[in-house]
Amino acid sequence: MATLLKHSAKYALSGRLARLCVHSRHGGLQCLQPCLLPHQRSASTGSKILVEMDNSTGIAVLTMKSPPVNSLSLDFLTEFSISLEKLELDRGCRGVILTSALPKIFSAGLDIMEMCGKSPEHCGEFWKAVQEMWLRLYGSSMITIAAINGSSPAGGCLMALACDYRIMAENPKYSIGLNETQLGIVAPFWFKDTLVNTVGNRVAELSLQLGLLYSAPDALRTGLVDLLVPEDKVLSTASQTMTQWLAIPGENAIGSNPRVSSSKVDLTPKVHMVDLSHSSESMCSLNWIPWTCSNRA
Ligand SMILES: CC/C=C\C/C=C\C/C=C\C/C=C/C(=O)SCCNC(=O)CCNC(=O)[C@H](O)C(C)(C)COP(=O)(O)OP(=O)(O)OC[C@H]1O[C@@H](n2cnc3c(N)ncnc32)[C@H](O)[C@@H]1OP(=O)(O)O
User: Name one GO biological process term (predicted).
Assistant: First the structure.
């Protein structure tokens, strides 16, 4: 039943994203350009996201390439969710590595320009897109690894936290954390829960109360990231790690299709995407119930 519901939601979302593409002025599907590369590789690129798929390994690399700082604008989030959805629907894709093409920056988090001086309708659309990005990443049935090759404050950190594993460049100049409090804003509770699931209650409490940004070594110490490697090894280590993860028997080991029924998080029955367009309480609208998470905590 849960699988059925997840699939209904998947196709409902699929339809919604498709409509976003058709109706929005923000680009979307029509800008994704598929092309074939040698050795069973394929690539598609939009203006902000590059997806390279290795069909021989089932590993895709999703590279954020939106200068200057990969900020999460509505355009960016829409393209991101569409890219991830396409991979989710591709039965050949089993793992996704998320990384950045920009020097020194993984992602600066939510685009500040989206949050000031916009209409309530725009704010509603933007906030739904933020939620959708998180739902797609955290609820993915694929293995997801963040290859964090630069700083990653706030929403950028959330993206990394939503992955299964985090590998960061061991550059002490790079920082990561949910620093919203320092900006005078409150991290929504589903940001908080994602952090708690990774670092535990006490570290999360301090991080959020003080709006801490951790250097790469401190991020490793607190468990915010899982591994530090030299900057030029981040992507190759992510690929090696992914290969190890993909060697773990999936649900296909008991005869079922791994990509149909192996969702790590049963989100669908418990999460309600509400219409935020007329709500000033949009920040607290995602009804995320942490104990529905089956093997993340
Ligand atoms: C509808 C919903 C409405 C409201 C929601 C409200 C609240 C939601 C509650 C909580 C969730 C919030 C989550 C967030 O993610 S908030 C965003 C937090 N992000 C930051 O604070 C990052 C700020 N940026 C930095 O720390 C640095 O820029 C960074 C370390 C990323 C890079 O430093 P560097 O020195 O390399 O570059 P800069 O010169 O600082 O920046 C270059 C360029 O980029 C612009 N920039 C930076 N960050 C952002 C951003 N988040 N959004 C948009 N633009 C950004 C910066 O202004 C510079 O532009 P320019 O001057 O034109 O060159």
Answer: fatty acid beta-oxidation
